[in-house]
């Protein structure tokens, strides 16, 4: 007999006592994450197998014992490979990391930026394991907060730019106009012709320029905007079916399929994590 078949298993939770901080313990054997981003940091500890993902235009591999880290807004994927992977992951806000950095250095700080998407740090891994263990039995808010702050402080001190992120290259005005437009009407059925005309360049040039600037083609960027808006509405308790139509998806099934492709969990299970 061969080895038992590994299946996808996801335990997604939200801690009310830590400002609704989201974390997950998951095994992914078949699920492939589409290109997506988060409004928060995404920091995970691989416990089994390896997390194979695209980030900053390159293939990354985080083996067991290593940390996978993505800054807010950075496009990335996730692939189980041949054997899948098991990991812990949590999503601290930009405000949380900035506050930790300011407490650590006792001065105003810009948003810290994690240097590497794969971090091999035994101390950080131990801090993450202790933190996640306290999250799973959140009887003491003080314990959870202490472990969270100490873990983030270590990562800030050893794995970020202390002066804040480097100044990003300004986006071309044509692309910036199209991004602003998509942000303002993400629920609309926008045409490529309209975006290209608005930008003042050909459709082909627009597609190449937009993808180079954002890491995603326009339609995929629009999906991420819709998903981010859907999460906010679902967090407020609005029905999934209504949210799907409001943000621009065809129906609930359409939202659910794309939600899981990006976040690894269905909208229903994501909502249940906070209940």
TrEMBL record:
GO molecular function terms attached to this record: DNA-binding transcription factor activity; sequence-specific DNA binding
SMART domains, per the entry: HTH_ARAC
Domain of life of the native organism: Bacteria
Keyword Iron annotated: no
UniProt keyword Transcription regulation present: yes
Gene3D superfamilies: Homeodomain-like
Residues in HTH araC/xylS-type domain copies: 176-273
Coiled coil, from the record: none
Keywords: Activator, DNA-binding, Transcription, Transcription regulation
InterPro entries registered for this protein in UniProt: AraC-bd (IPR003313), AraC_XylS_family_regulators (IPR050204), Homeodomain-like_sf (IPR009057), HTH-like (IPR037923), HTH_AraC (IPR018060), HTH_AraC-typ_CS (IPR018062)
Protein name: AraC family transcriptional regulator
Organism annotation: Rhodopseudomonas palustris
